[in-house]
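Researcher: For the record, we're logging two predictions in this thread. I'll number them. Prediction 1 follows.
Model: Prediction 1, sequence and structure:
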Amino acid sequence: MIELIATAESVEQAQELIAVGVDTIYIGEDQFGLRLPSSFSCEEIKSITEYAHKQKRQVCIAVNALFHNDRIEKVVPYLELLQDVGVDSITVGDPGVIGLIQKYKIKIPYIYDAHTLVTSSRQINFWAKRGATSSVLAREITFEELKAIGSEVSIPVELLVYGATCIHHSKRPLVANYFQFTGEVESSMEGLFISEPKKPDTHYSIYEDVNGTHVFATNDINLLPYLKDLMEVSVKRWKLDGIFTRGEQFVEIASLFVQAKHAIVEGRWTESFMYELNERLAALHPKERSLDPGFFIKDPNDVK
């Protein structure tokens, strides 16, 4: 079964995503989860979870930050709150959190999400033996590598099929530090980016939150033309990330992937339909951002 997972930026957008057919809403609070479009309170998480369950959908909570000692002490109370709310799963990347889940007998299923580290079936199967019910794959994996991973893993794997790729993360608030050093007034964190001196077309978007500074690749990922290929290698958990695609545009893009999912499952997927959906996606995607398949179509030998 194909599962479509999508981030949400508000309670209202979560409801809209469920209405267009998204299976799982991915949200969280930014002191526990990385690179979220918005930070949600426990009350908001409860509201979304109750609504999702009424519609027979699921909610996954991001608990995939890397925790220092001062913040990991807050994890267990947060997990216990999520357990009381009845969320369906959490993503976890810090082994310390996995240890706490086991020690305090937290009953929420966890999905292993160590970001760029998750590149082999052996690592995924290692965590499957330690309770992981699924794993999020790194975004720098080629299709040839996916073939091997899909055939060897013992639990389902998740792949980003639409959205931005983080290429650098510093725990330091680099942007805030810059403005403080220069004495300039910080107007907004939105729309900030850096470019390489000799490559003016590069557009490395910057996002800063309580977890530090995150720098994203120039091109956002779009694997809509390759969804049938993912099915054939048993990668059936598809993630949509709306950190830079906001509002109704993201909901409409999610609906395109829902249509693609149904067409593939029902045997109606054709090249012409794929091109139609892809053209509509390109029209909805933010004009200041570009799209490509990321590492998906690269030769593994060319990846350095």
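Researcher: Logged. Prediction 2.
Model: Prediction 2, sequence and structure:
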Amino acid sequence: MEKENNVNLPAEDVICGRNPVIEALKSGTELDTIYICGSGGSLNLIRKLAKDSGVVVKDAQEKKLSQLSGGASHQGVVAVGACGKYVSVEDILAVSREKGTKPFIIICDEIEDPHNLGAIIRTAETSGADGVIIPKRRSASLNATVFKTSAGAASYVPVARVSNLASCIDQLKENGVWIYGTDASGEEYTRTDFTGSCALVIGSEGFGISKLIQKKCDFMIKLPMLGKINSLNASVAAGIFMYEVLRQRSAK
């Protein structure tokens, strides 16, 4: 096993934490090097999985891991490499065709907080969504924080990054997908039928869905708000909507 050398890599090229690294290895995510401080338990599992996958493992000091992780919690392990590969919108549409189900897609309209994007990807995986679509500009990307927050789900959920979200929505419509925007002006989500082909649009933190994207939506849906606070965290709201889709489809 190689000893560590001094490296200086950008934060977006690392995956931090034991579970995210394990899931990345299991899913075949391309990794260059895994830096580990310590041994035993899941760290030994990571060493074995890395060896089986042909990924170089280097022993590192705590200080080096903190540097690579940018101060984020690393649990004794940091993997360096591409945090994930982006796919095409067609790749996401192919998921439902292969499963024999109706498309179920999540569109993030300028979700800039990587913690929110990671949480959305995590819930997308657990609720059975086919994939997540994000814009190239004014959006968090598949960086280390997203992988950490998703608890490894970003290794399994296809993510497409598109230059024009409006054109992407047109492409989805051409493939028979109904677009559901989330906004306080919409109909209560429990009164909406999600059993057909659908894409949920989750708006940005604080600003919601942009006016252009709102015009592209076929329907607008909302959550009931009974307290003094009239909005929810983007990832929390997204989770409620996603599980309503899952509930309705499971009831069929």
